[in-house]
Amino acid sequence: TNLKSVFFIIQKAVPHLEKTKGSIVNISSILSTMAVPVATVYSLSKAALDHLTRCLAVDLGAKGIRVNSINPGYFPTRILRHLGDVDKINEKFGKYEVAQQPLKGRIGVLEDVAQAVAFLVSDAAGFVTGELIKVDGGRNYNGSSTLSAEELQ
């Protein structure tokens, strides 16, 4: 669903976006470029979404439609609930991630992602297409190590 659903929704939206010269912002992940334990399929699907973003930027550009992606790092959400006590996991993983990223002192908040999306749909980004914007406090520059599912317990 990380790829197929996005593709089908975009197909349905293109006629409207063509009329309005709209913009598409996909939500991917920094894991699209990192190999981490227990996230093979997720990482692969996000890498495919990144490439879809670039391909659609080329395909839809002539129609005046810009296509970009936000690639967030770790944000404390409910996505890890399948591993157990999500609040405990988020606390532990959040501390680990803060230590790994160059921007110390805090973990990202969802407003960080929202502000990046707001930029990409604004006129200020009117000549930006095919870009993958990382919102991760610089985490992707500090290696691909992460905690395993067992370490999160």
Automatic annotation (TrEMBL):
PANTHER family, per database record: EG:BACR7A4.14 PROTEIN-RELATED (PTHR43975:SF2), ZGC:101858 (PTHR43975)
Superkingdom, natural source: Eukaryota
Signal sequence, renumbered to the chain: none
Annotated Pfam families: adh_short_C2 (PF13561)
Native organism: Arion vulgaris
Designated name of the protein: Uncharacterized protein
InterPro entries: NAD(P)-bd_dom_sf, SDR_fam
